[in-house]
Amino acid sequence: MNAQREPTLVVGRLTTRFAGLGGAVTAVDEVSFNVAPGEVLGLVGESGSGKSMTGFSILGLVDPPGEITGGSIRLKGRELRGLPAREWRALRGDRIAMIFQDPMMTLNPVLRIDTQMIETVRAHRRVSRDAAREMARDALARVGIPSPDERLRAYPHQLSGGMRQRVAIAIALLNAPDLIIADEPTTALDVTIQAQILFEMQTLCRESGTALIWITHDLAVVAGLADRVCVMYAGRIVEQGSTAQVLETPAHPYTRGLLDSTPAANVQPDKAGRPQPLRQIPGMAPSLKELPAGCAFRPRCTRASTLCEQTPPEVELARGHVARCFHPLSAAEGLKS
Amino acid sequence: MSAPQPARTAALQEAPAQAPANGSTIAPLLELKAIRKTFGAQPDWVERLGQRLGWLQPAAMVQALDGVDLSIARGEVVGLVGESGCGKSTLGRIAVGLHAPSSGRRLWRGTDLDALPEAERRRAGLGIQMIFQDPYASLNPRLRVRDLLAEAPRVHGLIDRTQQAEFVAALLRQVGLDPAVADRFPHQFSGGQRARIGIARALAVKPEFLVCDEAVAALDVSIQAQVLNLFMRLREELGLTYLFISHDLGVVRHLSDRVAIMYLGRIVESAPSAEIFSRPAHPYTQGLLAEAPTLKVEKKRFLAIQGELPSPLAPPRGCHFHPRCPHAFERCRLEAPYLQEIAPGHVSACHLNGA
Ligand SMILES: Nc1ncnc2c1ncn2[C@@H]1O[C@H](COP(=O)(O)OP(=O)(O)OP(=O)(O)O)[C@@H](O)[C@H]1O
Ligand SMILES: Nc1ncnc2c1ncn2[C@@H]1O[C@H](COP(=O)(O)OP(=O)(O)OP(=O)(O)O)[C@@H](O)[C@H]1O
Ligand code: SF4
Ligand code: SF4
Ligand SMILES: [Mg+2]
Ligand SMILES: [Mg+2]
After folding, report:
1. Where in chain A are the domains?
2. Are B103 and B60 in contact (CB under 8 A)?
3. Which among A327, B16, B92, B269 would be 20 to 30 A from A288, CA to CA?
4. pTM metric for this prediction
């Protein structure tokens, strides 16, 4: 969609490992993707697949024993890997912002909203308090908070959960960052509030050209929001492409399995009016400590062959649609049966 | 009545067995009638004194449930949907007897539970079990699985010590776990396995009715699918009845025969599952369905319901939904609509009904 524009973020073969007693684990394993200005990238996968670690790596927030051991992270052409901590800190909250599942990770419970927002602005640019306050007010209004002047004087505990999350989003927007990484920010919210926030984020990124990475385990959220999707399994991106390519003609057996496991709102009951059993992915997600050799999905995959004991190659199925698999599903097989 | 009329008596006795298969005329398994529940902090003596002297405001009361009627037939799966804080868990807890309602009645097979003597009420109570959202927090971490599963049935005299091992093994098999895991502790299991143990524990006292409160919300989709399939298999095998509380409309649609929609302490619509998803009648239900994320790849305009959730501390007058309803008119602000049947088995509470 934005292919002609220079990407905001280029992540190449990013690898993040945790040293540990029982040997090191690779939480992020040669992950590569781009995000263009104004584009929304959905990063999906089950618990422990490495979504948050990918986000933390891009933000320079990996703490020991974790370490980025390979690859590159280029923001508007500038390499971030190996940046001194001080410079990375200057980028955060300014050029890159993060929104967490729990807004209280961003908000300070003992400070008024205006104090926190003015500090965020003035930490990164020389403006007067009044000008910073004005910016804060505008940011609250932009995320749809009614009577922003009043809300500025509130403490976090005086706001509802949905309102708090919107304040956290407003803080992320304050300095018009190039990139926002949102880690499951609406998972704890109600459908109606979630829908409002998704809508606001979508519009804001379109209008301001901010690139957005939306981390979630919910494929349905991605379907309505993202331009492109990356599916992670055991630290690797196993499939990526446009949202339509990945969700409508998935090529990786794991993506197909995830879609089949999702109780979609369009299931047809059988003749007796009873629901059909959901198709299950057999087995469980592996522990990163004991990954099988070759394709990590092999023990659960119905298409596995002896070939899959080797590391699977990236196969380009269509323009921009890539799967890491020896036996990807054809477009016809991937279509929802 | 000196002359006996045996033929007629026999006919009367047979009548219930011949009740039509139509769900609405079979006596419900569980019936909740006009349930209200208010929560308020119990004031301590300083606060009471302060209130008496007029220094302090009386403690705020939360009206969690405001006159809820719900009846569930044997073998039925009823889905309960609504926004956070609307009272779903409170209703579930009242259904299993973990909370007493502030007013209203609870009928089990037609008998008023609160009118029963203590012992009988406890026995009836075993028939209704609850499965919680967080499978870890609800399992005692210091008990081995075998003790977790055998504790309640032993206390209630359903099994004796000699039967325990066999009983536990059968339960574990029923939920798809290897009986060899009986010696392990809860932390030695994955999330999906812990969810199964939580289900096995509820099944241990041979319930007829399960209240599942966000029972799969914490699970990843692939594990969630396994647990949902297990619920459905148990329904077939054991003839279980379910009240299935969930905010996930996909899950609810997949499982439920009937769906009840709650808004701020009231049920605003209830209908057979297929009907409510194809022909939602209440403006709130319509908004909810329009905004629920689906797997359809399309850029949504998420805009149907505006405004914040109102506070249960100060629910709006009249129809609770009126501050957010696109169709609200004068009457909605003054008068609460009550549930009316708008199609067979389909009730909705809105002043626009029939208009
Ligand atoms: N401090 C740590 N030490 C060792 N391993 C860690 C540490 N932090 C994370 N990991 C591992 O990194 C992997 C990726 O974790 P991550 O938090 O990125 O998962 P996720 O996809 O965000 O999952 P979720 O959906 O549960 O948030 C996990 O398997 C986790 O066990
Ligand atoms: N023990 C309690 N004391 C005081 N208030 C309570 C108590 N339990 C629930 N409430 C209040 O009653 C209302 C209904 O709560 P309930 O937990 O039933 O909501 P819910 O629909 O289950 O929400 P969720 O989807 O967030 O679980 C809420 O406003 C809640 O704050
Ligand atoms: S590489 Fe082999 S095991 Fe892995 S997903 Fe593809 S077919 Fe399955
Ligand atoms: S009663 Fe009025 S406010 Fe309530 S849902 Fe109906 S139209 Fe809307
Ligand atoms: Mg995470
Ligand atoms: Mg609840």
Report:
1. 1-95+178-265+278-337, 106-174
2. no
3. A327
4. 0.84
